[in-house]
C-alpha cells in the first residue's frame, strides 16, 4: 500500500480526484445564493429555514478537522474544500440571522453558538487523546456519521418525487453537483485507502445515481404527458 501511495501516477490521480471534488463542491456551496438574493431583496427570511446551513456548517467543520495533519495524514484537499464550505455556511447563517424575525433570530443565534461550541469540544477533546490511531478512528467515525446524515437528507426529496411524480422539488444541477462531488471524493478516498472518506461518499454516489435516474424518468414522463392532446376527438 505504501508503494502505491508513493507512486507519482497514483498520487497524481488521487490529487486530481480531490481537486475535482473541490470544484464540484464549490458548485454546491454557491447554490443558495439565489435564495439569499431574494432574502436580501425582501429583507425577510420568509418561510426559509436556517437549519440546513447550521447543519452543513457542523458537517464542514468536522470534516475539515478530520483532514488536518493533527488527525489524519495526507488529506489536505479535505481541509481546503471544507474550509471554504464552512466560510460559506457561516456567511449564510449570519445573513439569515440578520434578516430573520426576532424570535427566529434568537433561536438561530443560540443554535449557531451551540454548533461552534460542539465543534470546539470535539477538536479540543480529540487532542487530549494521545494515541493518534484512536484519535483518527474517533474523529473519522464522527465524519462518517455526519456525511452519511448529510447524504441521507435527499431521501425526503426522493420520496417526494416518487409520490408527486414531479421533479419540481429536485433541481437537476444540484443533484448533478452532489453526484459528481460524491464520486470524486469516493475515488479520492479509495486512492488514499481512507475508509472514512470513501464509505460515506460511496453512499452519496449511490443516492446521487438514484436522484438522477428519477429526475430523467419523471422529466421524460412529464414531457410526454405535456405533448398529449388536451381534447381527444372521437369523430
From TrEMBL:
* Membrane topology value: Multi-pass membrane protein
Matching InterPro entries, A to Z?
SWEET, SWEET_rpt
Entry GO MF terms: sugar transmembrane transporter activity
Which spans are transmembrane here?
A: 16-36, 48-67, 79-100, 109-130, 136-160, 172-191, 197-218
Biological processes annotated in GO: protein homooligomerization
The yes or no answer to whether the keyword Heme is present is no
**One GO CC annotation, please?**
plasma membrane
- List locations, semicolon-separated: Cell membrane; Endomembrane system
- Does the entry feature the keyword Repeat, yes or no? yes
Gene3D superfamilies the UniProt entry points to: 1.20.1280.290
Keyword set, alphabetical order: Membrane, Repeat, Sugar transport, Transmembrane, Transmembrane helix, Transport
Q: What does this protein do?
A: Mediates both low-affinity uptake and efflux of sugar across the membrane.
Q: Which family does the UniProt entry place this protein in?
A: Belongs to the SWEET sugar transporter family.
**Name of the protein:** Bidirectional sugar transporter SWEET
Provide the species name: Salix brachista
